[in-house]
Amino acid sequence: MKLKKELRAVKEINEQARREREEQDMMKKQQAEKQAKMQEQANALQHQQHHVSGLDKAQSDLLKAVSKVPT
């Protein structure tokens, strides 16, 4: 009888430890997904800013070209 209680207690402890590991794994996975999404957004923003700066340069070049045209 005492052994059955001890075995049940060990099983409960193991089950609780398994649930805690699963919860930690889930939290790590969610954190990694969140970080990946933030990195993706940062990369998109950086690409967008690079594209905008390219347009500014193109506009500047166009302005220089127009100002050199004799009237």
Can you offer a commentary on this structure?
The protein is built from 1 helix and no strands. The protein has one helix at 2-68. The protein is rod-shaped, with a radius of gyration of 31 Å. The protein is mostly helical. 0% of the residues are buried. The longest helix has 67 residues, at 2-68. The model has no long low-confidence stretch (mean pLDDT 84).
Name a few traits of the molecule.
71 residues; mainly alpha; 1 helix
Low-confidence residue ranges: none
Distance between the termini: 107 Å
Q: Write down the overall mean pLDDT.
A: 84
Class from secondary-structure proportions: mainly alpha
User: What Rg, in angstroms, do the CA atoms define?
Assistant: 31 Å
The H/E string reads H
Number of strands: 0
Shape verdict: rod-shaped
> What is the number of helical segments per DSSP (H or I, 4+ residues)?
1
Helix content: over 70%
How do the helices and strands line up, and which of them pair or pack?
Layout: H1 2-68
What is this structure, in a nutshell?
This protein is mainly α. The chain is 94% helix and 0% strand.
